[in-house]
Amino acid sequence: MVVVVEMMMMMMIMMKSLNYDFQPQDPAFYGPNSPLVASSKYYLRIRYTLLPYLYTLFYKAHTTGDTVVRPVMHEFYSDSNTWSTDRQFLWGKHLLITPVLDPGVDTVKAYIPDAVWYNYETMEQLAERRMHVTMHLPADKLGLHVRGGAILPTQEPDVTTTHSRRNPMGLLVALDDNKQAAGELFWDDGDSRETVETGKHIHYLFSVSSGELKMQVTRAGYKDPNNLTFENITILGVSYPPNSSAVSLISGEGSPTTSLPHTMQYDAEKKILFLQGLSLTLGESYLVKWDQGLEDYQRFDCHPEDNGDETKCKSRGCIWKPSSIEKAPWCFYPDDYGYSVTAFNETSSGMTADIVRNKKYRSSGRPNSPDIDTLRVSIQYHTSHMLQFKIVDPATDRYEVPVPLSLPKTSETDESKRLYKVAITQTPFGIKVTRKSTGIAIWDSSVPGFTFSEMFIQVSTRLPSHFIYGFGETEHPTYKHDLNYHTWGMFTKDQPPGYKTNSYGMHPFYMGLEKTADAHGVLLLNSNAMDVTLQPTPALTYRTVGGILDFYMVLGPTPEMVVQEYTQLIGRPVLPAYWTLGFQLCRYGYANDSEIEDLYNSMRAAGIPYDVQYADIDYMDRQLNFVLDSEFSKLPALVERIQDEGGRFIIILDPAISGNETVPYPAFDRGVADDVFIKWPKNLSDEIVWGKVWPDYPNVTVNDSLDWDTQIELYRSYTAFPDFLRPATAKWWFQEIKDFYDKIMKFDGLWIDMNEPVTFVSGTVGKKCLGDPLFENPPYMPALESRYLGLNHKTLCMNSEQILSDGKKVRHYDVHSLYGWSQTQPTYDAMLNVTGKRGIVVTRSTFPSSGKWAGHWLGDNTAGWDQLYKSIIGMMEFSLFGISYTGADICGFFNDAEYEMCLRWMHLGAFYPYSRNHNGKGFRRQDPVAWDAQFANYSRDVLNIRYSLLPYLYTLMFEAHTKGSTVIRPMLHEFVQDTNTWNIHKQFLWGPAMLITPALDKGVVNVEGYIPDARWYDFHTTREIGVRRQNLIMPTPLHHINLHVRGGYILPWQKPENTTHFSRKNPLGLIVALSDNGTAQGSLFWDDGEGVDNVERGRYLLTSFTAESNMLSSQVLVNGLHVTDQPFLGVLKLWGVGTTKIISASLISDNREWTLTPEHNMDTQELIIDATSLSASMSQPFSVTWRI
C-alpha cells in the first residue's frame, strides 16, 4: 500500500496513469478512507492550484523554447552538485519537486540549490541552501519547495479544469535575498488554437521590489466569461510586520487610483503576509504596496533607561508612540535630532568638519551631563584598507585612551587605491562609508540620536547586514549576534561568564559581513563604561559615559584579512614558548606542596602528556604576593625537579598588595617609597585608596564557616593597588618579581589574575568614596552587571587618581578598563628579563593590544555542558580581538565535574591553544588521573594527538605573530562564500587545514557537523570522506573526537612524548593531504622554542612545502637556527594518492639521493615514506618523489 501511495504521488505530478492487465491502481480502488485517496486528493488539489503556473510554463515552452520539467542543473549549472542530481526536478525555474522513489523509505537525501527556498506546504523558509539534506517524507508526503524570487499564479482548485477555471485566482509571492520576485501569467480560453499568434489572450508580468508588487498587463486580448478576479495574494519572506498596505488600480495613464478594499494579516512566526478579500479583475493592471514594517524598525531609542514613559520621553524632545513589535522602542528620536555641519574641508588625506547641535530640541535629558553644542570631526585615510574618524570637543581637553596604535606615518592620498569612499551627511550629521567595489554602505551614522554630552555620548549606525560578530568580553550564546534588540555592556569586572553580564575584559570591536561576503571591522577606541545595542534595522548604537569617539575601520575584504589588518593596528599576538602549547594542570585549593608532587608523580606514572604545573594563591603565605607559605616550603625543590625532567612551572600573581603587615614587607614598603599605589586626588586626600582582596591580616586564624562578607571584614587586610600606568610602577614590579625568582623559586611563566581590578569591598574600605558621587553613579548607567550598585561595585572608587606616562592625571572612571592591560606589559617584560626566556604571561583582564604580551583564559566558568560550546565562541571572539593564546578551564572551575562531561571536555580542550585543566577550591579533583583507568587512557590518547600536531600549531602561532592570522579560526574565515558557515559556532578550525567537530552534549554518540566545500580526510583513518558542502552525521563514541584534514594542505607533525622537551627531539614528519588535483602546500616554523626575540633576530627556520606531480619539495625561506636546534626529516604521510600501486620513492637533499621504500595502502589511499634513518636536515631544501 505504501509503495502504491508513493507511486501515485509521483504520477500526480506527471499526470498520466496507464494500466493494462494489472491490478487496478486508480485511487478509488483502495477505498474512500484509504491513505491513498486522502493523499491523492491533497496533492491533486495542489496540482490544480498551480495549473495557471504550469499553463504559463507551456506558453513559455511554445514561445521561447523554455523547458517545463527542468533538470536542477539547468538553473544552477555553476554548482557541480547539480550535475548529477537526477532524483529531483523543477517545474520551470521555481518549483522544486523531490519525490520518494524507493520502496520502504520515509527519508530522502535531497539537494537544496543555492537560493532562498520555501516549503510549499508549510510556507516556512528553509535554513539550508547549497547543501544536501535529509527530508522526512512518509508515504503520504512529497517534497515541494518554492524558490525565492518566484511569483506563481494560482487558482482555487476543483474536480475538473472546467470547474476550476471558473474559480478565483491568486498569487503566491516568494521573496528572495533582496526581497524581490518576478513571474508571469498566460491566460486564454484554454481550448482555441493559435491564441498566441492571434493575440486572443491575457499576459501579465509580475514583479516585486521594495515592498511593491506590480501586476502589469502586457496583453489584454481576451475577456474571460467567468469574470475572474485575483482574490488572495500570499507573500512569503516578509521579515517584519507591515503597518499598512494599499492596493490600487493602475489607470490607462499609468497612475494608481485610490486604495481598494482588502484585509491584511501577518504571520510573525513564519514571516508571511496575507492580503485577502481582494477583487482584482483579471486583465487589469494593479499596484500592491506594503510598508515592509520598517517604520518601527527605523526607530532609535531615546530612553534606553528603565521605566520610560511619555512624559520622560517628550521632556527629551523625542516622540512617544507605542509599537506592536516586541522590544521596539516606544520613545524614539525625531528625524532631525542630532547635529548639523557648519564648516567642511576635504583634502586628499581626509576630511574635517565642524558640527553644531540642533537646539530645536531640548537637552539629551540627563541634567547632570550638559550637552556639548559644538564638535570637531576629523576623518583620516590611513591606508587603502583603513580609515579613522574622530569626534572631539574642540574647547576642552577630554580624556583620550592612552593605548598606542601602529598608524602609518603618511596617509593614503591616492583615491584610486582606497577600498572605501567617505561622505558626510549635513543634517542630521553622519558619516557614510561605502565599499567602492560593491557600492554597499558598511557604516552610515546619518540617523537621528547622535548625542555628545559631558558624561553621555551616543552614536548609531546602520549596518549592511544582520551578520555581526565580536564585542566583549561577555558570554554570548551564539557567535553571530542576534540583532533583535539586544544590549551588551562593556566594563571590566570580576564577573564569571554569564548571559548579559560584562566580564573580565573590554573589547569594543566587531566584524561585520556584507551580503556580498565581504567583511569589515570597526574599533571604537574608548575605555569608559559603555554598552552597545543591536537592533533589527539592522543597526547598532554605542553609548559611553566619557572620553571621545575615536573609530577605526578596516575593510578586509575577507574575514581573515580583517583580523590581520586589525592586529596590524593594535599589535600582533605574542609568540608563546613552545612548551606553553603542552597540556597544563592547575587547581585552586592545593593544601601543600605534597599534593602537587603526588599529582605530578601520578601523571608521569600514567604516561599522560603534561608540560606545565601551576600554583594558585595557595602557595602564598596568607595570599601575599612574593611570600612563600610554610606548607609549600618544598615547592622550590619540586619545581626544580619538574624542570630537570622537562616540565615547567607557572605561578599566579595578583595586583593587590597587603598594607597591614607587622614585619617588613618589601613589596609594600618599596611600593610606598616609590609612590606606585593608587591614591585619592590631593585635593581630596593624600591617602592610598584601600581595598580588600585575598591577603589576610597577620596573626589571625580564618574561620571558613563564617559568611563571605564577615570573613572579608574580620580577616582580609587592607590592600593597595599599583598604578601600572606610571613608568615607576613597572620598575618596582620588575624588582619584586626578580627578587622572588632569584631568592625563592625559579618559575617559567606568570599568571596575573584579579586585575580588572577587583576589591571585595566596593569602592574602598568603609565603602565611602570621596569626591563627586556622579562618577560612581553617572547620569547614564550602561547595561552592566549590578549596575544599580554603581560603577565601583567590586572595584575601586571611580574618583581614584591614576597618572599616565606623560604625567597627566586621570580618574579611575576613565581608565578602569585599562588596568589589566596596563599590568600586562610590565609583567611580560619582567618575565623576559628575569628568566631570560620567552615563557608566557596569561592575564584575566584584557583590552585591545593586550595580545601583544599575553594569552587569556576565559575565566571562572562552571562545570556545565553549555560551557563546552560557549568556550568555542569565546575563543573565536578572542581570535577577532587579536589574542591567539586562549582557552577555557577544562572541565570547569566552579562545581563538581561529571565524568562524561569532563572526558568530552578533555577531548575539546586538547584543541584549545591554551590547554589547561583547572578547578576551584572545595570541588572534587578533575585532573586526568583523578577518575579511572579509562579516563586516563582516553585523555592520554587525545593528548598524544595534540602533541603530534604541535609543530603545526606552533607554526600557526608564528603566523599569528607575524601576519596577524587567526589560530582558532571560524569556518566562515575559510569559506566565506558559503553562507552556511556564517552561523556555525560548534565547530572550528586550527588555521586553514584542521577541522574539529567535538561532542558537546550529554549522552550523544553521533555528532552532526557541516563539511565545507573542499576535499577532507578523516584524521583517524586517513581516508577521504567523500562529502562536501553538506551536513554529516559522525559517529562519536566516548573516546573519540572528530578531526578532519583539508585537502591541499601540508601539516608538520612529530611523534609525541610526555613533554615537549622530549617530543621536540624527535624527527619532524609531514602530513600531505592532497587536493582534488593532487597538490598541497604548507610551511614549518621552528626555533629553539623559548628564545627571546628569535623572530626579530632571525634565529629560526622557516620552510615552505609544495606537493604536485608526485613530488614533495621544500624551500628554505629563513635559516637562522643554531645547528643544535635543527630538525631532521621523519615520516611522510601522503593522503589521497590513489589506488595505482606506488612501488618506489627517492629523496634528494644536500646534493645526495637516497632510495626509499614506500608503504602504499590502496584501501585508504595513504602512502607512507619513512626518511627517519637518513638524518636529513630540514634546514636544507629537499625533494621526495614517488613512482608507480
Give a description of the structure.
This protein is of the alpha+beta class. Among the domains are: 296-331, Spasmolytic Protein, domain 1 (Irregular); 333-492 and 507-559, glycosyl hydrolase (family 31) (Immunoglobulin-like); 578-857, Alpha-Beta Barrel (TIM Barrel); 956-963 and 993-1187, Golgi alpha-mannosidase II (Immunoglobulin-like, Sandwich), CATH 2.60.40. Helices cover 19% and strands 28% of the residues. It has an eleven-stranded mixed sheet with strand order 64-63-67-61-60-59-57-58-62-66-65. β63 and β64 form a beta hairpin. α1 packs parallel to α2 (35-49) and α12 runs antiparallel to α14. The longest helix has 17 residues, at 727-743. It is globular. Its main location: membrane.
User: What fraction of residues sit in β-strands?
Assistant: 25-35%
Total number of beta strands:
67
Q: Structural class of the helices, strands and pairings?
A: alpha+beta
Shape descriptor reads: globular
- Number of helical segments with 4 or more residues: 23
**CATH fourth-tier homologous superfamily of the domain at 578-857:** Glycosidases
Q: How would you state the average pLDDT, rounded?
A: 94
How far the N terminus sits from the C terminus, by CA atoms, comes to: 55 Å
The order of strands across the largest sheet is 64-63-67-61-60-59-57-58-62-66-65
The CATH architecture of the domain at 578-857 can be given as Alpha-Beta Barrel
Return residue spans where pLDDT drops below 50 for at least 5 consecutive residues.
1-19
CATH topology of the domain at 578-857: TIM Barrel
Radius of gyration: 34 Å
Family: Belongs to the glycosyl hydrolase 31 family.
Protein name: Maltase
GO molecular function: alpha-1,4-glucosidase activity; carbohydrate binding
Organism: Takifugu flavidus (sansaifugu)
